[in-house]
Amino acid sequence: MSGPRTIAIIGAGQAGGWAAKTLRDEGFAGHIALLGDEAHPPYERPPLSKAALLGAWPVEKCYLWPAESWREWDVDLRLRCHALRILRDRRLVEVEDGEPVAYDRLLIATGTRPRPLTAPGAELDGVLYLRYIPDMLAIRAHMDAGGRALVVGGGWIGLEVAAALRTLGHAVTVVEAADRLCGRAVTPAISDWLLALHRARGVDVRLGCSLNRFEGAQRLERAVLDDGSTIDVSLAVIGIGIVPNVEIAAEAGLAVDNGIVVDELCRTSDPDIFAAGDVTNHPSPLLGRRLRLESWENAQNQAIAAAKSMLDRGSPYAEVPWFWSDQYDANLQIAGIPLDWDAEVTRGDPAAGPFITFYLKGGRMEGAVAVDQGRELRFARRLIRMGRDVSPAALADPAVKLQALLKG
Amino acid sequence: MSDVEFHAVARTGEIDEDEAMQVLIGRREIALYRLGGEYFATDDICSHAYASLADGYLEDGQIECPLHGARFDIRTGKALTAPASVDLATYQVKVEGDTIYVGVPKAT
């Protein structure tokens, strides 16, 4: 007898869902327990700040697969199931309100949770976050009151929420403590582009500005900023980052450092415990260092890789990071991690329309950012993965097809 | 008697090798591909989310959706990678002279 007979997965989000589905696709016929503490079956989060928030998609459309799929695939999906601790020596996961779940192999896919805002008044009704389906529904319910909305945090969540609220006709103010938008993820030029995108649509963006406190009798009525100014709002959405849910792993004695530490096969410091998704600190052979990615693509693809590893048929997980954001009708995509570069080439006109900026280091492509140029970005992603030398002159020449650079 | 009717959709000079183009037959959006000098046709809208595969990345007989990267085999329409799991419909293609025709089910 070889291979596991029972697999448990803590976390039924996008990563947990893809891992369970992949196990079945790979022919695993044993027991799969998929434990999630939300009330919904596995779903993807990006629509919560886009189509679902705009009211264009019903909740069910966010689900990875129809709710009845899990029964069809004979996956024991347990919702509202809170995993309390892992008893490694006994190979058990203790859960609240239920019998412990046994495992031969375990996947931790607990993801991340919103960083809470510590400011007076943050607990007032009307101060909301956006991570879970109920959050999205709460924001939509508060939208009906109309009026100005405040967004705290000028990162991806903040900007997508601002775009959705503005699109639906609300007046919006965004406050960002740093001196530029999305400072952790994009270059200053792209921050400028994002700023222009929102200001052109009348969003009041305030950089270098922090929230001091919220005020209101029984519900949110106004926000006071650190410069003393006040804004009357009954809806505030906080998007100041996410923190990895490592507690259950740390308590079990697994290696944790900015996430659950895993190797290229998604293994933790316990040979029978794996991890995937937002919660992992994993090695990137491409970048030559470890990182923790907070992306849809990593949640999906690392989970698929982890599932195969759990069946002893995995291969090193080495994807070129890829991320996208939709704001208004602009689609922005990022390939690689353009943090350190020595040459930059742009095709297209950032001021007027679609464009793609390539970031090179030592003659190779490190990263690329594209607006409304999805196809070009895929080529860039290949070039990044291939690690081949690229000529800035060829990149700059619009007559040279990127396809040709892949073959040349 | 065939239940497929062919519609002229493009001229052979309009698509380069390893390129894809969206064509419309009525309101049906179809992606037309040129590969190895031959032409293939599938549904243009990705089976996973609303995106035009003709805007995607074509290589080695596979089209990659520009939205989330799902790949499909352009000859068979088969969904090859996550996040797609539903295959694309494929359509017959024939070339007469310099005109490309795509066959779709006859409207009943």
Which tags fit this structure?
heterodimer, A: 408 residues, alpha/beta, FAD/NAD(P)-binding domain, Enolase-like, domain 1, 3 domains, 5-stranded parallel β-sheet, 10 helices, 28% strand, globular, B: 108 residues, mainly beta, Rieske Iron-sulfur Protein, 6-stranded antiparallel β-sheet, 3-stranded antiparallel β-sheet, 9 strands, 0% helix
Provide a concise account of the structure shown:
The complex is a heterodimer of chains A (408) and B (108). Chain A is α/β, with parallel strands linked by helices and 408 residues long.
Quaternary organisation of the protein chains: heterodimer
Number of strands of chain A: 26
Mean pLDDT of chain B: 91
Largest interface: A-B, 14 and 11 residues
Cα shape of chain A: globular
Strand order of the largest sheet of chain B: 1-9-8-4-3-2
